[in-house]
Write a structure and sequence with these properties.
Two copies of one chain form a homodimer. The first copy, chain A, is α/β, with parallel strands linked by helices. The first copy, chain A, is built from ten helices and eleven strands. Chain A has helices at 7-22, 38-53, 69-81, 100-104, 118-125, 134-145, 165-174, 189-193, 239-242, 256-272, and strands at 2-3, 28-33, 57-62, 87-90, 154-158, 178-182, 198-201, 219-222, 226-227, 233-234, 248-249. A six-stranded parallel beta sheet of chain A has the order 1-11-8-7-5-6. A three-stranded parallel beta sheet of chain A has the order 3-2-4, sandwiched between helices. In chain A, strands 9-10 form a two-stranded antiparallel ribbon. Chain A is globular, with a radius of gyration of 18 Å. The A-B interface holds A 101-102, 117-128, 151-154, 160, 162, 166, 169-170, 173, 176, 178-183, 185-187, 192, 195 and B 101-102, 117-128, 151-154, 160, 162, 166, 169-170, 173, 176, 178-183, 185-187, 192, 195.
């Protein structure tokens, strides 16, 4: 079995992004945060650090875990209207009572570098230019980097989130794959996932996908990032047993994750250069 | 095999819509037309007639087959801004060079009664309130009318149009079906469609789906409306041979079609009563 790490691709995307960022006025990403969740704050700081590394300015706009939904929406709208800000991202989780989908409607689609606005998802589905969520884009970038054929092939996406599963289904359809979306209510999950030539797991349940879920030789992309007891990360794929069946598998950590951050920055540099 | 006609359901929807329309100020639907295509004009006139039958005003705004895209977009925006118009629909085909997806962005989502604006599709995908395209809504209404179980079942949609296949995939996912979208580039179509407990054909190719494409007992919904040489309509399903295999099948004509028109009017009445 072939392992498909993301670090080399992420480094290439970052290098290209750095060049794009240096070519014009400095791109600026604003990340709106309204949580005390440690993993979330860690991720946001890692974005800021990666942005600095490629010459992109990154403002953390921390509204605190008690922020009212209206205030979050107003902040997203204000940043969207600010000509000095090129990318706007809203970090989840949000305070209780706030709907990420509704609030993200306040992000200008031209600055929606993490594809959170439902209009971005709709434009993506309709085949119009739009930024996909960085995670969904990272899955496609990895498949392309490793030259995985998609045309006419059977792709199965486990997970139907607005952030990964649904936009990914549209990106795969756009590449002429035959696409199945399965989820927690799917009966006999293994019978569905084992039809996949390309299988993407984006459910958020450690070890959900075992050897019985995977067709021999399948390309398996693991989007899961589940915390382990020792403070590490593990994917949705039971990698030990799946390695004996799959043809190729992305590692966690070091697979989709680094590519996601790199693409978020690429989107920001591109947003800064939109005509 | 059970036949699943749409006329009874359409009549029930029309009766309910007539009551809703009579309860407030008269709803008004504006249909923008920019084609000389006879089938299209026939369909638009049938909408106007059906609207009159349930007490909904219907304006045909005919810009002619040579209308410039800008003029179509401006017309959609003007109608969207008109407080006396509650539903705005853009009939296809459009003149060469006009993008239906881009132009439909000018329709206020609250008046987008045929779900043509990419924002409506994105909101639908994100689980937010939105009008689905009337055809996609008609498929769901027929499945519900005939009490077809969807939870956890395998649904296959043949066709990936923005008008039917894609929104329908989201509507089926939202009902907890496991959903596969296949299309012209799908390899071995029969091997995919024959896994369906619920199969929807929305490709636009007469007789594409034969007996070998259908699992014994499957519920089959035929969205195809292909013109026949004698001036009639035929579906995407080869109904003669499929009838021997399927558990249930919608007829063409008289299946999805009448329900679609009735739901377009229901959406208009609802748009008129949005808070």
């Amino acid at each position: 079995m072939k392992t498909l790490p993301g670090k080399e691709l992420a480094a290439a995307v970052r290098a290209q992004t750095q060049a794009e960022a240096a070519a014009g006025p400095q791109p600026r990403l604003a990340v709106v945060v309204a949580t005390a969740d440690e993993a979330s704050l860690w991720y946001v700081r890692s974005i800021a650090k990666a942005a600095a590394g490629v010459g992109i300015a990154c403002d953390l706009v921390d509204l605190g875990p008690g922020a009212a939904p209206d205030r979050i929406g107003e902040t997203l709208a204000r940043l969207s209207a600010d000509p000095n800000v090129h990318g706007v991202m809203m970090q989840t989780p949000l305070p209780a009572g706030a709907s990420a989908q509704e609030l993200a409607g306040a992000i200008d689609p031209r600055k929606d570098v993490d594809g959170a606005n439902p209009l971005s998802l709709g434009r993506l589905a309709a085949g119009l230019p739009a930024f996909p969520p960085a995670t969904a884009a990272a899955v496609m970038a990895l498949l392309d980097h490793y030259e995985v054929e998609l045309e006419g092939r059977r792709a199965v996406v486990a997970g139907r989130s607005t952030v990964v599963g649904k936009p990914l289904a549209h990106l795969l359809l756009d590449r002429n794959a035959t696409v199945t979306v399965c989820h927690s209510r799917t009966r006999d999950l293994a019978s569905v996932t084992s039809t996949a030539e390309v299988l993407v797991a984006a459910v958020g349940r450690a070890g959900l996908i075992g050897a019985a879920h995977v067709a021999p030789g399948a390309v398996v992309i693991d989007v899961g990032t589940n915390p382990t007891e020792d403070g590490g990360l593990t994917g949705d794929i039971a990698s030990g047993e799946v390695a004996a069946v799959a043809g190729a598998l992305t590692p966690v950590p070091g697979g989709v994750g680094p590519v996601t951050t790199a693409l978020l920055l690429r989107h920001t540099a591109r947003a800064a250069n939109l005509p």
